[in-house]
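To the team - magnesium ion complex, inputs and output below.
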Amino acid sequence: MLALKNIKKSYTTGSFTQVALNGINLNFRENEFVAILGPSGSGKTTCLNVIGGLDRYDSGDLVINGKSTKSFKDVDWDAYRNNSIGFIFQSYNLITHLNIIDNVEMGMTLSGVSAGAKRKKAMEVLERVGLKEHMHKKPNQLSGGQMQRVAIARALANDPDIILADEPTGALDSTTSKQIMDLIKEIAKDKLVIMVTHNPEIARTYADRIIEFKDGEVVSDSRPLPDVEISPNYKLKKTKMSFFTALKLSANNIRTKKGRTFLTAFASSIGIIGIALILSLSNGFDKKIAEYESETLSNFPIMISQSAAEIDADMLKERQSAMMGATDEDAYPDEKVVYPTEPIIEKITHTNILTDEYMEHIENIDPELVSGISYTRMLKINLLKKQDDKATIINADSMSFTSYPKSLGGDNTRYLELNYDVLAGSYPKGMNDVVLIVDNKNQIDKTILQNFGLEYESDSIPFEDIIGYEFRAILNNDFYKANDSFFMINGDPTNLIDLYNNENAIPLKVVGILRPKEHIKIPLLPEGFAYSDELAEFIIKDAANSEIVLKQKDSEFNVLTGAPFDESDLDFNGVSSKEAVLSVLGANDTPYMISIYPASFSAKDDILTYLDKYNEGKSETDKVVYTDLAGKVTELSGGIMDAITIVLIAFSSISLVVSLIMVGIITYISVLERTREIGVLRSLGARKKDITRVFNAETFIIGLCSGVMGIVIARLLIFPINSIIKRMTTLPNVAQLNPVHAAALVLLSLALTVLGGTIPAKIAARKDPVEALRAE
Ligand code: ADP
Ligand code: MG
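Output:
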């Protein structure tokens, strides 16, 4: 069944070539106990290794069951070793970190025998060698004889046809030797056993056939077998180690060196900890900023102004980077020239034409999205106050007398209710209601009070003195009277009591005192009196047909002064243009500026989308651009955060590279330590791939440990970090580890450590099994 045909094998070390086998011709019977005798160095072990497929012959042929092995590939040899051969070594070669039963099962594990069948068979062979009760012990808890019995059990477990034993009793005392030899003799009853020994007595006592070796040649054979033709009858089951087996094997191995594994995993986890902390901090700060922004910036309006100075995005970016110390490439040129450019204003100005269509578009915004819309107009309402039976003009500017934002869809004071507390009285209800707005210290500019005729004596005024206070708005036709070419006030400016009392006068009553709510960091209505947009609309409607407006429309001079307009003399209030005078008089129902207050920070995006919809398909001049101040602020803060995060992660990544190298070294050391195990596994039929798998499994475990450890440590560190941040900034729970980031980092750690172990694992796989077995 087994034939060696002119087998030659030599080893070359340096320039010296040692012939180990010099043309061996041997035929073996299917069932015999063969002893190979010979002096040390005569080639016995080499011959056994060649027969077992552990070593390759240089020339000749090894014929198994009539099949030549000349064309065998690695996998064929692996399968052959696993299926047909059982090795017994002088030094037992048990895997020390596996218990007895696992050692015995290893060969079957490699050939994919099911767990149940494996256990049954292992128990059976252990019983046969008399070690059943020791099956859960580790090899180092057994005596030499017992260890050799385990090795025999392992060799028998896969039911091989051939048992190869290399000086199996070489390390044992004579009594134990006898027991082992009896056992082998017993096995030889139905197998081919080839045993190497240098003890002629053992050979004579036990063997059926004695072959003597000398200098790599057969010098005698007590029972030679002539050549017999056997028809090829050969089929072998391929071996394969599952990743789970590799994991189990490595987990067992790692358990024997817990301390080192822990330290390795911990060192590797430092990079992960760093990145996890940075991510949680930036994540947390992003969240806090978003929260802060939605709190403070949500009451920032989106502004649409008739002559919108569009904030040029590129210019803004340039300013920002300049603020942060970055310089433009073409800044500070060396050329001794000056570059004329387009005027900046022209580049960034866009005139918004607020058509009726656009105004309607605004009014049709989903009422849920906005807390209020305010229209800024140049309209100057004619106001009179009454003091001691005398009425005089209130000189209110646009700051001390403004309209509060109106709400869409019925609930008219939503904006005020969301942003202002009522200190006294109530929110305004109708056109005749005005409110006094004070700052967060209940303060109000005293000149405003004086202007509006509110008298007071001490340094504070009780609420009840203000609530119910009344002044009046006078319509244009009553307020102005024509005087030749221009108009003047209808009455004696020092006492306009008749005007005050006229039937068209609109009484305005202070119904409430409002103060910004505590969470409103930046109140947007100026301190002073606020009226409803309804009042403005009413007055504008009336003004449209007032004499003074009609006259102004027809005249090319200012009807308030009688002076001609001088277009070159535009002052800041613009009142020297005809358009401006008309606006002031209320002839113009298009507001100068529209401010839209989003109901929430998130509603803002929907509003912007809605506003953008208007511009779709419009020509550049017809487009209406808006200014989203809050958006500009958000953009800036987000960008800075991202930049900082990237830089910090880059730093932490260095420690990941360090741990990559470290894991490589540790794995390499492990490969050196487990060399013998590699040899044993190979002798049991493990493929090179399986060996790679064993070490990949080891790094997999380390990577998983370090990843999980890193995340756990980072999570724990977040507690003190948060308490420090809280003490410094009063912000609670800033650092927050995103579970997705955590999972990604564990995967990263796994990937990197496995990568680090790749080269050592490949080195392990390439190890020559014979040399590996000889390793100390
Ligand atoms: P034996 O088992 O009979 O003592 P071996 O088969 O181990 O002898 O060795 C046969 C010869 O081959 C010896 O001279 C030994 O030095 C040589 N030899 C065996 N293995 C190697 C090797 N890996 N490299 C170099 N020489 C070797
Ligand atoms: Mg030897």
